[in-house]
Design brief:
30% of the residues lie in helices and 32% in strands. Helix 5 crosses helix 6. The protein starts with a helix and ends with a helix. The chain has 193 residues and is of the alpha+beta class.
Length: 193
């Protein structure tokens, strides 16, 4: 969601529902919760339709990320969470998520261009999910992410990747842990209200 749409919805007390443009089914409802000011969290969301790709051993040169994502965009493959490692021994790794339906095609495209992209190998994982807390000003409020991570720690759930923005903190987990994670995070933030 665009930050401004969330701000306007909050200001005018409009409930939002985030729907898929690909499927006709109910979406995630974003609405104000009683006493939400204490937590700044409006809700917890999950996505189990994603997969992860890691390109291992890319050359540590300018323009590598551009080459990878330009290639994927030319094939209409959207990516979401992107993580690039700090270079070591003149190489780096780039990991990203995409819709699960695009995994095989993306892997094939990247392997076809392996010589041009100059990476060592690809690792993929189709058994992941994303869990997010959504709210306003999450980055500027100390302890919100720590509280989320505490809920996952207490539930014995391991985090694979973390991504943050002004209105969202997302974690990638094993798909089998997603529903437990949603319950644990929801309990940590909303059962205390």
């Amino acid at each position: 969601l665009h930050n401004r749409s969330v701000e306007l919805a909050k200001k005018f007390r409009v409930n939002l529902e985030v729907l898929s443009s690909l499927e006709r089914k109910p979406g995630t409802k974003v609405k104000e919760v009683a006493k939400v000011e204490k937590t700044n969290i409006a809700g917890v969301a999950k996505d189990t339709s994603i997969a992860r790709i890691a390109l291992i051993g890319l050359e540590h040169n300018p323009g590598v990320a551009f080459q990878v994502f330009d290639l994927l965009s030319k094939h209409n493959i959207n990516v979401d969470v992107i993580l690039q490692s700090i270079g070591r021994e003149e190489t780096k790794d780039i990991t990203f998520t995409l819709h699960r339906k695009d995994l095989t095609e993306a892997e094939d495209i990247l392997n076809e261009h392996k010589a041009a992209l100059r990476f060592d190998h690809i690792e993929t994982d189709a058994g992941i999910g994303k869990v997010s807390i959504v709210g306003v000003g999450l980055i500027s409020n100390c302890g919100v992410a720590a509280k989320m991570f505490e809920a996952l720690y207490e539930a014995g759930i391991n985090i694979q990747m973390i991504n943050t923005s002004e209105i969202r903190v997302s974690v990638l987990l094993d798909e089998e842990d997603v529903n437990r994670a949603v319950k644990a995070i929801h309990a940590k933030f909303f059962d205390e209200i």
